[in-house]
Design goal:
The chain has a single domain, classed as Rhopdopsin 7-helix transmembrane proteins (Up-down Bundle), CATH 1.20.1070. Helices cover 80% and strands 0% of the residues. It is built from six helices and no strands. Helix 2 runs antiparallel to helix 3 and helix 3 packs antiparallel against helix 5. The termini are far apart.
């Protein structure tokens, strides 16, 4: 503070509120127009990934099965989370305040989509690890039938544990 003169300190404090106001306007414009662009680009990318990954040749390996599900899960995460944030920023309306049941249902869908997306990345990583670590036996461990079973088991475990997310309380 010793190196800053009184004129510089006054100049900094005088530009403070207008700088903050400008930053808020820029952040709001970025949120208002940026989120739809991000959703559009993410949807196009995930749709193209899905179209490529459902080809007959790619349906036979577990990694492509997981990546197909990941494209679907990421699109779902994109719509659910971005839609809530965008609606609140543009209209000021909070979807979680509609009703208690609506709040819990929305949070369940949001948490389920985050959970599925994250664990699909783990399953892809596990599949790649097994194939690389055991080059001659890796494909014996991970077959498409086993991959479908693992994902169904994973999904059922989450759905059966939904009571955790259904008991979340947001205010009174």
């Amino acid at each position: 503070m010793d190196n800053v003169s009184d004129a510089e300190a006054t100049n900094v404090s005088a530009s403070g509120p207008s700088a903050i106001a400008w930053e808020r306007v820029a952040a709001f414009a970025l949120l208002k127009f940026g989120v739809p662009v991000i959703v559009l680009m993410g949807t196009i990318g995930n749709t193209l990934s899905f179209c490529v990954l459902i080809r007959r040749r790619m349906r036979s390996t577990p990694m492509y099965f997981y990546l197909t599900l990941l494209a679907i899960a990421d699109t779902f995460v994109l719509y659910v989370s971005a839609f809530k944030v965008w609606i609140r920023a543009v209209t000021g309306f909070e979807l979680l305040h509609v009703s208690n049941v609506g709040c819990k249902l929305f949070m369940f869908i949001l948490l389920c989509s985050f959970y599925m997306s994250a664990w699909l990345v783990v399953l892809v990583t596990l599949d790649r690890f097994l194939v690389i670590w055991f080059p001659f036996r890796g494909y014996l461990f991970m077959r498409i039938r086993r991959a479908r079973f693992v994902y169904c088991l994973h999904f059922r475990c989450y759905v059966f544990n939904r009571d955790v997310s259904m008991t979340l309380g947001f205010g009174s």
